[in-house]
Structure formats: C-alpha cells, structure tokens
Amino acid sequence: MTQHDAQVRIERDSMGERQIPHHVYYGIQTLRAIENFPISGLKPLPPYVDACVLIKKATAITNGELECISSEVSQAIVAAADEVLSGKLRDQFVVDVYQAGAGTSHHMNVNEVLANRALEILGDEKGNYKRINPNDHVNYGQSTNDVIPTAIRIGGLLALKRTLYPALSGVIAALENKAVEFQDIVRSGRTHLQDAVPVRLGENFRAWAQILQEHETRIKTAAQDLTVLGLGGSAAGTGLNTHPQYCDRVAQILSELIDQPLRPAPHLMAAMQSMAPFVNVSGALRNLAQDCVKISHDLRLMDSGPKTGFKEIQLPPVQPGSSIMPGKYNPVMAEMTSMVCFQVMGYDSVIALAAQAGQLELNVMMPLIAYNLIHSIEILGNTIAALTERCIKGISANRDRCLAYAEGSLALVTALNPYIGYLNAAAVAKESLETGKSLRQIVLEHELMTAEDLAKVLDLEQMSAMRSTQR
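The line above is the sequence of aspartate ammonia-lyase; the predicted structure tokens follow.
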C-alpha cells in the first residue's frame, strides 16, 4: 500500500464521524452499509448502476437549468456521471444486494461517488461536501423512494435492449433457418411420449420460432409499464422540495439519454408505491423461461442416444460429457438453459412476494426486486444467445432415423379412419403390434382398401404437410 493509499479523510453524518480511506470515492454512509451488510458478496448489476447514474445526470441537468443548483455544480456532477457511464469507477459501487430497505444504502453510494468525483473535477478534495454535497446537490429534489423505483424501470429497459431483445431476435432467426433446412424431413410425432402422426422436422423448429416471437411481443408489451416514471414524487409522492417544472423536464431528459420514450406517471404516489410493473415484466420473463425449458427438453429428447435413444437430431458436441466414459457427449447447452430458466422462475416468485410486502407510502423490498428482475433479464438473454450460437445453429438432422420412426409408427393408422372406420383401424393397429406386420400388409391382407388407395392415404409427405391458415 502506498503512502497515499494509507491516508484517510474524516467524514461526518448524523450519527457521528468516521475515517474513510482517502483513495475511495464512496463516503461515510456507504462505509456504514459495508459494515452492516456483509451478506452475499453480490454487488449491484451494471444496468442498475447505469440507471441510477443516468437519473443523477438527468436530475443534475434539470436542476441546473431550473437554477436549483449552480451551473458549476450541475456541470461537475454531469461530468462525473459521464465518467461512470463510460466505465470508470465501477469498483466504487460496493453495497451488497441485501441491504437497507428501499435501497437507501446503494442510493447514497451513488450520491457519494458522484459528489466526490465532481469535487475532484472542480480541483477540490474528496469529502469537501460544503461545495458539493451528496444529499444537498447530487440528490437535490430527490428521495430514495422515487429514485430507486425509477432506477429499476430504467435498468430493466436497458437490460432488455442490451441483452434479451438481441438474443431473442437471434434465436428466432436461427430457428427459422433450421425450419427451412429441415422442411422436407418427415419424423414421427409423439404425444404423451407415445407414437403419433407424422410431422415435418422443419415445422418443429418453425413452431419454436413462433413461440419465442410471441414471447418477445408479450415482454415488449409488459415493458411499456416501465416507461411511466414516478421520479419527481420525492419522499412520499407529493413532490416536496421539487421545482414545479422538474418532473416533466427530468422525464424528457431521461428519454433522450436512453433513447426511449418516458413520461411522468399520472399519479406519482401510485407509481412509487406499486411494484406491479415489475411483477408484470417478471411474469412475462417467467412465461418465456417456461417455454425455453420445454424447448431445451425437446432438444435433449430428440438428440438422446446415440444407440438407445431417439437420435433424430445431432446437437453439436461442445465438450467431453463424462469423466469416466470415453467418447460421451452430453447436451450441455440445453441442460444449462433449463437450469437458468428454473432460476428465473424462482426470481419471479421472490419478486411477487416482495411486491406485496410494501406498507403505506413505500415498498422497502425494492433492492431485492431490482436485482432479481435485472438479473433475470440478463441471464435469460445470455443463455438464449449462448444456446443459439453453441447449439441451435449447429444442429444437424438424422434423416434416415426420422423417416424410419415415421414409417414404423402405429399412429399412421389414424389416416385410415375416414376409409375403414375407427374400430377397424384400431384392430389393424392391434394386430400390427402383436404380429410385427406393417399396417400396409394387414390392410391389404384383410382387403380393407386397394393398394392404390392405400398408397395415397399413407403418403407421409402429404400426411405431414401443414394445413394453411389465414394470418
């Protein structure tokens, strides 16, 4: 440790004074939080830090324009915010995820870092809060109670735009490409894990693409709730200590900063109290996760084997699959996908519990909601992107295996129902199962249909073709 690193500064708050290492940019309230909450080692997620700093930048610009703080102080806070947004000082946001209710500890961490860096920008010393104060200047007209629910909204929007939406677009395109590649491959359908009528392998992939496209739409619809802000409500939603023009102006500036339309809530108190927007988005994420689990399980089943399973498709091997069995490869990308999705479902349950745990003018469980929601978005997006690149794009089909299963399925007898009746068809299926004879052989032996008609009815290409629908 250098001599400079060993130096300390003295900071004071309402509870007394403490020594702060001179090299750090956080202050006394952050230090108390570090001491109080040595819980998980989990630190605030980057989109959440970005969201808080963007709010501080927007409020500093607004308060400077409205002459609530001096232009010099406003510009210094904005400059400090821009440095953080560029990636600097990220190691200074140190408060554990499990912390003081409502997020006051993290909020003050942000206020202190920006205040101290702004002081340096002005050529002053860290800790000279008479010139720039974390509460009086960086936090002018604000409260944890309106900043944190706004930060969850902004953080969620940033994470969706950066991570989940690109991943969904990528996987949908990859699945559509596979649908075209596999369109002429016929395989046996399966319901209840039993033989069913034939389908096209390409349509399986196209169905998955459609499912994920619909989830993307649902999530984007739910995310509209995040664009309505309670920022400006101050401590309890009344707007105490804010300029009359502050609320509209800060929403406008934030919209410009994140390039998304935002607007003040029609009732600031309602926007600050209710966690419903986060529950709504989390529910849409859980819904997506549930279908991603189903798709990942389908991939594993269709790739099962290689000798004793379906092995209708081959997932690309990406790593050895066993520490003892040579030559074994496992569907690890699909397995990982399910694990992540289970975590997202768990986060959703926690968000629902936390959302109903507010009292009167405040929900004190917001730090937990913030972490769980943004983390869900990030891990889902990263997972889908990895599954796309490391699995879906490299899938190949075992055409002969698919066709053999389709031709050997007893469910082909379903196509005979209109021609020989359900009971005769059932008898044919039973005899085929008992004797090992093919359906074609039995139908012809019993003279239930002519060979020509039977060939038309049991045409796998026609049987597996999708019927057109109006869109």
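Note on the example: Confidence is low (pLDDT under 50) at residues 1-5. The domain at 146-400 is CATH 1.20.200.10 (Fumarase C; Chain A, domain 2).
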